[in-house]
Amino acid sequence: YRLFFKKMKKIGYEGFFSYEQCGPVYVNHRMGTIEEVDRRAEIGLQNFTP
């Protein structure tokens, strides 16, 4: 993602980006909790931090 964001900045993009958790979340072959979804979203958010 870092290269993508660098290129978007280079061309002058100043709009919004979003992160989406697609599909069900599984941990050790079991349905993940909302805390796991939040944890993964936090990891994704790290790619959006300038």
From TrEMBL:
Protein name: Sugar phosphate isomerase/epimerase
